[in-house]
Amino acid sequence: MFDRFNRSWALAKQSWQVMRSQPSLAIFPVISGIATLLVTVSFILPIFFSLQASGAFESGSKLNSHNFPVLYYVVMFCYYLVSYFVVVFFNVGFIHCASKVLNNEPTSVSEGISVALKRFGPILGWSLVAATVGLILRAISERVEIVGKIIVAIVGAGWNVVTYFVVPAVALEGLGPIAAIKESFGTIKKTWGETVIGNVGISLAMGLLTLVPIPMIIVAAFTQSVWVIVGAVGFAILFWLGLAIIGSCLSSIYTTAVFQYARTGQIPNVYTQEQLQMAFMQKPPSKVSGYFRPGR
């Protein structure tokens, strides 16, 4: 357990070195987050005012699959599609730039955006696939009981595993959605489990850092000063937002490094051969025939 944590912490530190060498990488998740928020607001506000104008709130109605079946799914699909496109677009730019940095090549945010624009077709294609699958899983989940919801959640998790490397495949190889899914699945089979454990480890390291502002908030609460409490909470919120951005960057950098290593066999200078090869270690086969549990 401690060995795995130490290994994950080392991965986080070395991914941090990559980010330190190119701080502008953090711009991608920031823009992506802002754009996603704007997309969400642009969908919520018209729906809210439309329902309010129609008197739906007074009658107790709301936009869901039972009261407005066609409209509900059309709106949800459009929201999923636009949201996925925004997130994938900036992830493609990020991964391109991260790959350049890992290869000690100069890059810039504008270059990443330019590459994402060139990948417009594959990005849109993958967004359509992801939105369709997401909407189907949501529709099924809304119509089944708890056991069905669990099954849908498992299927969704499996889908996330299979498509884990789709965005790197789009960013670095320009593949369309179907070819990218095949490439992702092939890479996942090679990197059995540890790829995801590495990312989970990075998330764990970031999770532990989220505890840093807690003592300050507790101390501020004991002062019973509104301004001190507001200041402490405000600092904590900014700290957590910054940590979320950094964690997203570190995870994407590591994923890019593993995908690049799987494709080319080249080891980025910041990582050791052992750290990247661990992503290709195979777990022993299960004693239960036919049992297969991919890691995320």
Rounded to the nearest angstrom, the radius of gyration is: 22 Å
Structural class by SSE content: mainly alpha
Helix percent band? over 70%
What is the overall shape?
Answer: globular
Element-by-element helix/strand order? HHHHHHHHHHHH
Unreliable spans: 282-296
Mean pLDDT: 82
Largest sheet: none
What is the number of E strands? Answer: 0
Strand content: under 5%
SS field, number of helical segments: 12
Query: Please, how many domains?
Result: 1
* Distance linking N and C termini: 18 Å
Folded structure, characterized:
- The protein has helices at residues 2-21, 27-53, 69-102, 109-118, 120-141, 146-162, 166-173, 177-190, 194-209, 214-223, 226-264, 273-277.
- It is an all-alpha fold and 296 residues long.
- The protein has one domain (2-280).
- The longest helix is centred in the C-terminal third of the chain and has 39 residues, at 226-264.
- The chain is globular and about 60 Å long.
- The two termini are 18 Å apart.
- 30% of the residues are buried.
- Residues 282-296 have low confidence and may be disordered.
